[in-house]
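Input sequence (194 aa), recorded before submission:
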Amino acid sequence: MKHWIVTYCIFIIPLLTFGQSVKKNSWVVSHHAKLQFVGSIGFLSGGFGYESASNRLQYDFFYGYVPEKFGGVAIHSVTGKLTWIIISEQLKKELRIDPLTTGFLVNYTFGKQYFLFKTPNYPSFYYGFPTAAHFGILIGSSIKKNKLGLYYELRTHVKDLASYVTNTRTLDFVDILNIAIGARIELRKTKRNN
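Predicted structure, token format:
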């Protein structure tokens, strides 16, 4: 039931407010919506986001879903992501490319089989990291034409990076990477300051 409430908050509330005056409620209406395929936050995830006044930072909120046939059980999660656009080029009036972006994310997975602090049936700190919360870093790029855009990101979780650093003989660097491919649609204009 919890994940349906989260879904409602993430998708329905911004859509209901989109029809209202942007000037009157500009803090409520998101700047963009995104749909993403894979990338460690769900087999398919969607959400909305905001851009900073400088247009160099993007704040995104996602709801992710993994079907039972891919995860063994149906998995529901929410993610907060901060992306910093390091390099951006306006090629034409309607075409922009961001060749280098980076950032971090925090992901929370719902379910009784996941824990945040206390591990059921195991002593405290038996597991080094919680299984319900994941912290990750990312690097990628994006392209946008008019209101539509595409992006990709390479990501890794902090726990995977820690495992790699302590197990370089058994893990290859590519073993800890995830790739995300997504699409973005602009919901309202933001003035870009390059």
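Checked by second reader. The radius of gyration is 18 Å.
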